[in-house]
Write a structure and sequence with these properties.
310 residues; alpha/beta; Spermidine Synthase, Chain: A, domain 2; Rossmann fold; five-stranded antiparallel beta sheet; 26% helix; globular
């Protein structure tokens, strides 16, 4: 795989100085929410419309970006999903060396993976080169140098092609992080059982995957569909939930593996984290069990009483 240079971000067509206006986003088919925001930058790539805005509601950390009208991440709360997607999996593995991130063009998941001393390589497969270019220009704190780390390789292209090529070469990864857009659009085929089965073949011993599912209260059918697909492929499938302010809802994620039950991590019984994980803002050993503790009213939505593949 060849590393691609990140092109300069495109010129914004927004007026300066921008005025505050409403920015709305949907949560599933029947719900939505609105932020008042100052537009900062906007451009349309060959793949999508990209916007950067400042959200007064979040104060000094209110800078956020959107793809095709959906909020993706803000400096205030992006760490919630990134920490939940990366650290339980890598801690459960115990010695993860190679990490593959599908999507992840904002660098947040790569940043968290690189905190682990065992990690020697992080491959980020981003479809749109304009995403990392925009982030590095307008929100560099999100990646926090992840793309400059010599352990990181940014591959521009379709994640499906990268997975097929890696399989053909017989490559193996210890962790695969799905840091993609939601599963109801172009990324839908990356969230179904056939693709999960391909990724499962990429995993080395004790390997696992993590992905975002969506808002279970408002996207219950989509969330359950992905969980059922994961359960048809992997032995252990463990959903977790966290409230993400930028998404306006409680958010669900899932961790899946054939050998690791990431709900129970022996390494956390002492209540401490490796030195490289000091300063985490959301994930902590004391909160690990809570993240995986699905409330009774959500168990039916998430199908938590359904058996996994055996």
């Amino acid at each position: 795989m060849s590393e691609k240079r990140i092109p300069p971000a495109g010129k914004s067509d927004l007026p300066t100085p921008p005025s505050t206006r409403p920015y709305s986003a949907n949560i599933g088919q029947w719900a939505g929410y609105t932020f008042a925001a100052h537009p900062v930058f906007a451009t349309t790539s060959s793949h999508q419309h990209i916007e950067v805005v400042d959200l007064p509601a979040f104060g000094e950390l209110g800078r956020a970006y959107r793809l095709d009208g959906r909020f993706m991440a803000s400096l205030a709360d992006a760490h919630i999903c990134h920490e939940c997607m990366v650290h339980p999996l890598l801690l459960a593995h115990g010695n993860a060396r190679r990490v593959l991130i599908l999507g992840g063009g904002d660098g947040g998941s790569a940043r968290e993976a690189l905190r682990h001393a065992s990690v020697s390589e992080v491959v980020v497969a981003e479809l749109d080169p304009q995403v990392p270019a925009t982030i590095l220009q307008h929100m560099p704190a999100l990646a926090n140098g992840a793309f400059d780390d010599p352990r990181t390789t940014l591959v521009i292209g379709d994640a499906r092609d990268l997975v097929d090529a890696a399989l053909a070469r017989g490559e193996r990864f210890d962790a695969v992080i799905f840091d993609l857009t939601e599963a109801d659009g172009d990324a839908a085929s990356l969230h179904d059982a056939p693709f999960f089965a391909k990724v499962r073949t990429l995993l080395g011993p004790r390997g696992g995957i993590t992905l975002q599912l969506g808002a279970p209260w408002f996207e219950g059918l989509q969330v359950r569909r992905m969980l059922d697909a994961l359960r048809s492929v992997f032995t252990f499938v463990r959903p977790m939930t966290a409230y993400v302010p930028l998404y306006g809802a409680q958010w669900a994620l899932a961790l899946a593996s054939d050998s690791l039950d990431m709900r129970d991590i022996d390494a956390l019984t002492a209540g401490t984290l490796p030195t490289g994980l000091n300063g985490l803002r959301h994930y902590a050993p004391s909160r690990h069990a809570v993240l995986f503790d699905i409330s009774p009213e959500l168990r039916a939505i998430l199908g938590e009483n359904m058996p996994a593949r055996r």
